[in-house]
């Protein structure tokens, strides 16, 4: 793969960066997977996960990330809310089964 500068891109480096971002996203989202947020998230049915995360105050606080910071924060918001909604559905289904 060639960059605009004419220099090649090492796809192993790109894959490593992608893995690091995915790990950091999951780690940051995990901070918001709480019982309190599980209760809050049900009040935002019908909204997209990233918007719910924004309204719930889910933020990315790790310093040193420049380019793409707001996009990365939306990824964290979306991931956290998706996990909370999934957890809530599993909880509902387990109560129905009992």
Give a topology summary.
Elements: H1 11-30, H2 35-41, H3 49-56, H4 69-97
Helix pairs in contact: 1-4, 2-4, 3-4
Care to give the gist of this entry?
Helix content is 65%, strand content 0%. The protein has 98 residues and is an all-alpha fold. The mean pLDDT is 89.
What does this structure look like?
It is a single chain. The model has no long low-confidence stretch (mean pLDDT 89). Helix 1 crosses helix 4 (69-97), helix 2 (35-41) crosses helix 4 and helix 3 (49-56) packs across helix 4 (69-97). This protein is mostly helical. The chain contains 4 helices and no strands. The chain is 65% helix and 0% strand. The radius of gyration is 17 Å and the shape is elongated.
N- and C-termini, Cα separation:
55 Å
Uncertain segments: none
Largest sheet: none
Order of helices and strands: HHHH
Q: What is the tally of beta strands? A: 0
Determine the fraction of residues in helical runs and give it as a percent range. Answer: 55-70%
Proportion of beta-strand residues: under 5%
Number of helical segments? Answer: 4
Characteristic key phrases:
98 residues, 4 helices, mainly alpha, 65% helix
């Amino acid at each position: 793969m060639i960059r605009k500068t004419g220099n090649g891109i090492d796809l192993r480096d790109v894959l490593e960066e992608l893995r690091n971002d995915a790990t950091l996203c999951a780690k940051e989202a995990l901070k918001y997977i709480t019982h309190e947020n599980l209760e809050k998230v049900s009040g935002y049915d019908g909204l997209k996960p990233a918007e719910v995360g924004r309204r719930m105050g889910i933020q990315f606080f790790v310093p040193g990330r420049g380019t793409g910071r707001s996009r990365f924060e939306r990824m964290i918001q979306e991931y956290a809310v998706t996990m909370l909604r999934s957890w809530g559905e599993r909880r509902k289904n387990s109560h129905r089964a009992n």
